[in-house]
Amino acid sequence: MSVPAWLEEELAEATGAGRRLDAVDPRLLAMGVFSTDGRGKRIGVALGTKVLDLAAALEDGRFAEASLNPLLAEGPAFWESLRQRISERLGAKGAARRIRPLLLDVDAVQLHLPIDVADYVDFYCSLEHATNLGRIFRPDGEPLQPNWRFMPVGYHGRAGTVVVSGTPVKRPWGQLRGPDGRVEFGPSARLDLEAEVGFVVGVGSELGSRVSGQAFADHVFGLVVLNDWSARDIQSFEYVPLGPFLGKSFATSISPWVVPLASLEHARIPGPPQAPPPLSHLERSEDWGLAVTLEVRLNGDVVSHPPLGALYWTPDQMLAHMTSNGAALRCGDLFATGTLSGARDGELGSLIELTWNGERPLALSDGSRRAFLEDGDEVTISATTVAPDGSPMAMGAVTGRVVASPP
Amino acid sequence: MSVPAWLEEELAEATGAGRRLDAVDPRLLAMGVFSTDGRGKRIGVALGTKVLDLAAALEDGRFAEASLNPLLAEGPAFWESLRQRISERLGAKGAARRIRPLLLDVDAVQLHLPIDVADYVDFYCSLEHATNLGRIFRPDGEPLQPNWRFMPVGYHGRAGTVVVSGTPVKRPWGQLRGPDGRVEFGPSARLDLEAEVGFVVGVGSELGSRVSGQAFADHVFGLVVLNDWSARDIQSFEYVPLGPFLGKSFATSISPWVVPLASLEHARIPGPPQAPPPLSHLERSEDWGLAVTLEVRLNGDVVSHPPLGALYWTPDQMLAHMTSNGAALRCGDLFATGTLSGARDGELGSLIELTWNGERPLALSDGSRRAFLEDGDEVTISATTVAPDGSPMAMGAVTGRVVASPP
Fold first, then answer.
1. Which of A89, A232, B114, B135 is the most buried (most CB within 10 A)?
2. Shortest alpha-carbon distance between residue A115 and chain B (Å)
3. How many CB atoms lie within 10 A of CB B139?
4. Which residues of chain A have a CB within 8 Å of the CB of B118?
């Protein structure tokens, strides 16, 4: 949508050069769930650093919901008409007078998990990330596993521990190999971040049917920024042969605002070439790469700019793969890219890559160094895309602080 | 509970020697969800092969729910008082006259998934099963992975494809290695069953806190019989390094009746000895082994009797491990044992073990042979425990038929 003059003026401070990381470009009409003192959860639209109560703005009680799920289940035609209605309401004559009093400062509200997460799947779709981890863990072997170039490899994570940005992350305890090789139960000493993007499913599918990549926009409503916190030491002892479990399931943080796919039409780009060519059920028929760049900050220092657009397996291929065995989709399903790492310096999406397994600690501006995360560290991952006019569009952020966990 | 005479008479046929596999001993007061033509889902109690409408029997509309979750969330004191109320109602003066008309034949109702599944975790807790698979896949190596004796190894499965007994199971397609070694997309040729027991969580826990094994009965309401259908060929290509995904996520079937833990107090037994002794957070403080035996039928032929009581890691240890990193529990969480295999002949819980990776096909009574499941095959897994008086107590069954999946 185009931003009416009154709103542009209202938001000038929030979207200008010194913008806050949690600001969301009003042209995206990103949606989430908020509450204020004394009133229940309801759906909001992010406009810069303001929150617009959707039900109040549209004078339609149907939007006084505690999660986006009922709205997401309605499907793409509804999503589009809703965006139209909001856009018209903001641009209508007298909107400045009518809508301005309904805008709440984001600091004055509480933001909640925007969706009831059904199943959570995490993929492993960055060629650079998979290659880096292969080099770190199997320095003498082939970095990629034999299946990697045939399918977007993924696994199910814990839906019940997906949390909204701002939720403190308690350092997990788990079974680790001590210095003498003995197995002990203790706090993870190798806590990491993973910079990712998550896709939110609105429209489900029938058990036993496949969803093709072409149907991506019929099912997927939008995207969130996601930090898949990882305890590398817990993970490395537990993961053979059934994959990551407790090394991941303590917390997965997502941004509070879901950016509709429909607002990113202009940001679609082809995915990188794939060799061997994917099997026919995974063929790309449209460009579902997205020109989105993340920015990872550790205690305020920018440490990386992982690119979503460099992803080897595009999200339409993830969707096709995930349902290729007939698995049903449900409203609220969340699937994430896996750590986004680019090929260039400064594009790595995890500390294990940035510090090469802790061997080359990062130097922070406060003079300290980090191999992995310490108690009190704050990680903020924000995302930006480019508007049709070339200007940057902020897509919001996910943040979390590591807190100590007592025995 | 003790069964009143009128009910015993009513159920004589169903619970006698020629009992149906789906009968459930009335002493267990197992609960599920059913519907009849023209009326919505509601909670039922399984009495032999009869279903009692709980809300009608107790004349209490609070039980007219479409899933057990609201009832499960209430916690153990409520569960116990509910069992008392049902028991009193069945044994009260005039009960025969009042309750008999409320009993529906199980064939006259439709049974539904008893719970809204929150997260689904599948463990790998049978020493014999893990050892057998290690021998099959790594004949020259150590059968058990280094972590196996330190923790109940597990992973998250797909909650959205947990289905109720009777749901047809479409043969999944997936990426397989063809005879020439090339990767192709086709129907699984190595479809297997896995005989398991699943535990249903009623009371959740806070993110960041651990749930000890001692608190097992404070959180877990009851158990179901579970078939974790597995496509061995899809699984074997996909599972490194992130674990099973599409080889499992096409369907997981559970029995329609949840047997309350409280009805199995007398069936509790110690788990087998553990060496090395488990780390302190996984220590057993009570006997949470359960004297339950499964029976696996393939097209009517009994092919195995896997024992729950032989499980190396007991369910209290699974719960303690699953939350040892601070992961929250939610009402509706389901966690399963993994394939139950015993040490003796006739106790193996999967075809891959029963046929030793297909090398020794099973001979069925119709003259056919099976390495893995064929289209049209029906698998029924039933469970039985022993009553305090030594008589068998049927715990219900999970059944499913394999149907072909077109291209």
1. B114
2. 14
3. 8
4. 159-160
CA torsion angle B129 B131 B132 B133 (round to 10): 90
Provide the 3-class DSSP secondary structure of residue A269: strand
Q: Does the beta carbon of A245 lie under 8 angstroms from any beta carbon of chain B?
A: yes
| Strand, coil or helix: A137 | helix
3-state class of A90 per DSSP?
Answer: helix
| pLDDT tens-digit series, residues B184-214 | 999 999 999 999 999 999 999 999 999 999 9
| Among the partner residues B150, B243, B250, nearest to A327 by beta-carbon distance | B250
Interface test with A, best of B313, B325, B331 (most A CBs within 10 A): B325
Q: Which of A306, A300, A304, A305 is nearest to A365 (CA)?
A: A300
The strand ranges marked E within A178-215 are 183-187, 191-192, 195-201
For the record, the structure tokens of B301 come out as: 């032929």
Put simply, whether A312 touches B (Cβ < 8 Å) is: no
Residue A14 is predicted with a pLDDT of 60
Surface of B (376-405) touching A: CB under 8 A: 405
Token pair belonging to A321: 């793969």
Inter-chain touch A207–B124, beta carbons under 8 Å: no
Which run of H or of E encompasses A54? Answer: helix A54-58
Residues present in chain B in total: 407
Task: Please compute Rg for chain B using Cα positions.
Answer: 21
Please identify every residue of B annotated as catalytic. Answer: 129
Q: CA–CA separation, A339 vs A226, rounded Å?
A: 9
Residues 325-384 of A with CB under 8 A from B: 325-330, 333
pLDDT for residue B340: 98
Q: Are strands B378-386 and B292-298 parallel, antiparallel or unpaired?
A: antiparallel
Q: Whole-angstrom Cα distance, residue A366 to residue A352?
A: 21
Helix/strand number for chain A, H first, E second: 10, 26
Please report, for residues A132, A232, A244, the alpha-carbon distance to residue A357 in angstroms, rounded to integers and kept in the order given.
Answer: 10, 10, 18
Q: Does B283 touch chain A (CB under 8 A)?
A: no
Asked if B241's CB is within 8 angstroms of A325's CB, the reply is no
* Alpha-carbon distances of A293 from A194, A364, A395, rounded to whole Å: 14, 22, 10
Q: Does A78 touch chain B (CB under 8 A)?
A: no
Strand partners, B43: B33
Residues 133-192 of B with CB under 8 A from A: 145-147, 150-151, 153-161, 163, 167, 170, 172-175, 183-185
Kindly list the residues from chain B whose CB atom is less than 8 angstroms away from the CB atom of residue A324.
173-174, 185, 246
**Residue A204 is encoded by which pair of tokens?**
């489900």
Assigned token pair, A210: 């496949």
Name the one residue in this structure whose structure tokens are 């970095």: A143
State which amino acid sits at residue A239.
Y
Q: What is the pTM of this model?
A: 0.97
What is the ipTM, given to two decimal places? 0.97
Q: Is the peptide bond before B241 cis (omega within 30 degrees of 0)?
A: yes
Rounded to whole angstroms, how far apart are CA atoms A389 and A382? Answer: 21
Return the structure tokens found at B288: 């949470």
Whole-number Å distance between alpha carbons of B175 and A270:
24
Is A129 annotated as catalytic? yes
